[in-house]
Amino acid sequence: MFVLSLLLIVLTIIALIDVVGQPEPVVRNLPKIVWVLLIVFIPLIGVALWFLLGKDWSTSRIKLPERRGRKQSRTSGSWGSGRGSSSTATSSPSQPDRAVSSTEEQLAALEREIQAAEDAERIRKLELEMKRNDPDADDKLP
C-alpha cells in the first residue's frame, strides 16, 4: 500500500511539473489552471486524464531514437524517416549546449559577414573619393 501511495505522489508531481512547463497553446481541452486543479484535488483521475487528454504528445520533448551508423535498407519497421539517410540536421533535446553554441557560432559568422560587407563598401567609397580627388590615382590603385 505504501508503494502505491508513493507512486501516486510521484506521478502527481510529474504531472504538475509537466502541466506547468507546457506553453498555454499546447495544452489541450482545458485551461492549464483547470488541469492543475484536477491533478491536485483528484490525483489519480486528474493525472490519468492529463496524460490521456490534456498533453499534446506531438510536441512532447520525448523523442524516439533514430538509427544511426548504417544505411537503412528497409522502410517498414525501422526507426527514423526510412529514406536511407543516416544523419540528421536537427539536434536532440539531450544536446542543448551544442545547439546553442551552434546558433551562437552562426550569429557570430553572420556578424563577421556583415562587417566584411560594410568594410568592402567603405573601401569602395574611399577608392571612388580618391579617384575624384586625384585623376592620376588609377595608376596607383591595384
Summary keywords:
142 residues
Word description of this protein:
The chain is mostly helical and 142 residues long. Helices cover 59% and strands 0% of the residues. It has 5 helices and no strands. The protein has helices at residues 2-21, 32-41, 43-54, 96-133, 137-140. Helix 1 (2-21) packs across helix 3 (43-54) and helix 2 (32-41) packs antiparallel against helix 3 (43-54). The chain is rod-shaped, with a radius of gyration of 29 Å. The N and C termini lie far apart (88 Å). Mean pLDDT is 75; it is low at 72-89.
Q: What integer is the average pLDDT?
A: 75
Distance between the termini: 88 Å
Q: How would you spell out the order of helices and strands? A: HHHHH
* Beta-strand content estimate: under 5%
Number of strands: 0
Radius of gyration: 29 Å
Number of DSSP helical runs: 5
Helical percent range? 55-70%
| Largest sheet features | none
Poorly predicted sequence stretches spanning 5 or more consecutive residues: 72-89
Overall outline: rod-shaped
SSE-based structural type: mainly alpha
